[in-house]
Design a protein that fits this description.
By secondary structure, the protein is of the alpha/beta class. The protein is 30% helix and 25% strand.
Length: 336
């Protein structure tokens, strides 16, 4: 397997830091749904996928680079590559456009993907290529496809993957459209946020397949049915991702939170409900629903895609609380 030459001391440091990261991820419980992912994280070298990254600080972003002339800077780069934190990898006019996700969150998402031997997986958002490498280690290169709209990011991911010894299919294209020429897939996982679930993903996923995607600061796990419908609940875990390129919308206008108690306004679960009902309920209505239903956690919410409609719901797809997602028709919310 080809690797960048770091020198004996840095290679040993990388191995030691990687082992420590795996122990940290394991202690967090992220591997619980599928412990077999532990081996992939123990073997795949994250530092090869982040030859440079930006660490936030009081004075802004500090660029850490694996080929710095300063030995101490190279050591900081290796140590930072194996911290359980997201790493900013691309900035444009000061804005984050690409990152390497927090490893423990990646581990939880891969475990919740519930892959089986022989599964074909589509990843939406190639990023650095690290997630595709983990999938390739587990399933084999030929069963992994990753897509990114940005040609530079796709090419960079391809280079990182080849340097680490992995060669999944890397496609430059609109992830919201999937990759029809490589379909059907058994699993689809998105590592970027969208406002709703593209119907193309459901169409390109086999019946019984699983789609895992960030949505409204949560992680949605859908099971695809035999009639082209997909349905499922959110996981407990909060998740914040860079939006899928090409789907970014203008920042929403600040919402007036008058009538919502100050102690509730920053509650993470209430903010999730606000994000999920932004175009359907005003904050006061959302607060009334939240209190009436005993402040529900993420796992009580779900989404249904099918019949030309797409809607979110609380507890029951056919229950009293259901509302259309952006860009879709669906049941109107009934708050009784």
């Amino acid at each position: 397997m080809a690797t960048r030459v770091l020198g004996k001391e840095l290679e040993e440091l990388a191995a030691s830091e990687r082992a420590a990261l795996v122990r940290e991820i394991e202690a967090s419980g992220a591997f619980a749904a599928d412990p077999a992912w532990r081996e992939a994280f123990a073997v795949v070298p994250r530092h090869l996928f982040v030859p440079y990254y930006y660490a936030g600080g009081a004075a802004g972003y500090e660029r850490r680079w694996g080929e710095s002339a300063d030995p101490r800077a190279r050591e900081r780069w290796v140590r930072g590559a194996y911290e359980d934190v997201p790493l900013a990898t691309r900035l444009r006019d000061g804005d984050l456009v690409s990152s390497s996700s927090q490893p423990s969150l990646m581990a939880e998402m891969l475990a919740e993907l519930r892959v089986r031997e022989g599964d074909r997986v589509l990843e939406i958002g190639a990023g650095t290529g690290y997630n595709a490498a983990l999938l390739s280690y587990r399933l084999g290169d030929e069963r992994v496809t990753t897509v990114d709209l940005d040609p530079e990011i796709a090419e960079s991911a391809r280079r990182h993957l080849a340097e680490a010894g992995y060669r999944p299919t890397v496609v430059t294209g609109d992830g919201a459209r999937g990759v029809p020429e490589r379909a059907p897939f058994d699993r689809i996982v998105a590592t970027c946020e969208l406002a709703s679930v593209p119907r193309a993903w459901v169409a390109q996923c086999r019946p019984g397949g699983r789609i895992l995607t960030p949505l409204a600061t949560g992680l949605l796990a859908l099971t695809v049915g035999g009639t082209g419908q997909a349905e499922g609940n959110f996981l407990h875990t909060p998740a914040y991702f860079v939006p899928l390129r090409g789907t970014e919308r203008p920042a929403p206008e600040p919402v007036a939170l008058g009538g919502v108690p100050p102690r509730v306004r920053e509650d993470e679960l209430f903010r999730f409900l606000l994000a999920l009902t932004r175009e359907t309920l005003d904050p006061q209505e959302a607060y009334a629903l939240w209190e009436r239903e005993d402040r529900p956690g993420r796992h009580r919410y779900g989404v249904t895609v099918g019949g030309g409609r797409m809607w979110a719901w609380l507890d029951d797809p056919e229950g009293p609380y259901a509302w259309p997602l952006p860009g879709s028709s669906g049941p109107s919310l009934v708050a009784t």
